[in-house]
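Issue 218. Parser rejects a valid record. Input:
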Amino acid sequence: MPPRIDVTLLRKRLRAGGALRMLDRLGPAELAQALTELPPAELRIALDQLAGDRNRLTQTIQQVPDELLDELLEALADPQLAKLLG
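Output the parser choked on:
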């Protein structure tokens, strides 16, 4: 299922620092789909914004296709990854 938001608009908002509301409107599956369409730099920004809600981030990561999981986990900062795994 494609995300309910425009990924191009999400990318612009991520670069401008105002994407959290857009991200909050997505369920885990939709959010995972949107994250897989972001380039690495913007993926890191999105993950930084999502890191405050470990439960939601965990649910989202569970929805990421296996072949893209390594890329997503590499984009997480070490403290975020430690918090997620802890």
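Fixed in the parser; the record now loads. Residues 40-50 form the longest helix (11 residues).
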